[in-house]
């Protein structure tokens, strides 16, 4: 079976992206399994530190291995925005395919030093490492107001090159205008900055965070400019909450979880399929 590196290389060569969909419940996971099986395309399943702790790193890793056998297609697991080195090491040891070390709150040199520490540990086990440079602000949820970004929050193309050369990280999360979560206004992407980062960090897999609520046109432009991985969380969380509220409202006496949760699985499958088509992710051969 193909590994994540091969797939990201293919995405870069053929101008498409792989979606990372974050989850913290089994019915969300089943929705993703359904989409991958229907379209036969790879995706990355993301767990933030909070999501990973809730699910259990050992449990989610085991479920992914079972899904690979059952559906005969690779499934990739990424620890998203990892800050706790012990948790990152645990994810590596339990078979995660990738780990994202988020050192964005540290000064440049310290961020690079910690990133290299993670690389030293993870690469021995062929786990891909995502570093982060720039501040990708906000939380994955619904917000009243747009987060205001300053020049200092955004990734400088020159610094990105320096960081990439210094650390030799595989994937790089960059701050090019998107923030986590959704709000009334549209998210904007600084395409010029993205293009410059792309030119200067040729061999790195660039990651777009805050993927919820971005228009199809902007997504396609970002992929054209070198984005190969797009992270989506809020849209998945929102479906979960909206479907559950609706079902509970309409079935006040129902106590069977599998009756209340089935629609969530179907709605998430539909959303993930929509994103896979939008990202033009190629099917696994
Ligand atoms: O790391 C996760 C993503 O960046 C999620 O962002 O909640 O805006 O989809 P989102
Ligand atoms: Zn993120």
UniProtKB/TrEMBL annotation:
InterPro entries: Aldolase_TIM (IPR013785), Class_II_FBP_aldolase (IPR050246), FBA_II (IPR000771). The keyword S-adenosyl-L-methionine does not apply. Its cofactor is Zn(2+). Zn(2+) 1 binds at residues 81, 180, 209. One of its GO terms (biological process) is carbohydrate metabolic process. Signal peptide: none annotated. Zn(2+) 2 binds at residues 102, 132. GO terms for molecular function: aldehyde-lyase activity; zinc ion binding. Dihydroxyacetone phosphate binds at residues 181, 210-212, 231-234. This is Tagatose-bisphosphate aldolase. It comes from Candidatus Nealsonbacteria bacterium RIFCSPHIGHO2_01_FULL_38_55.
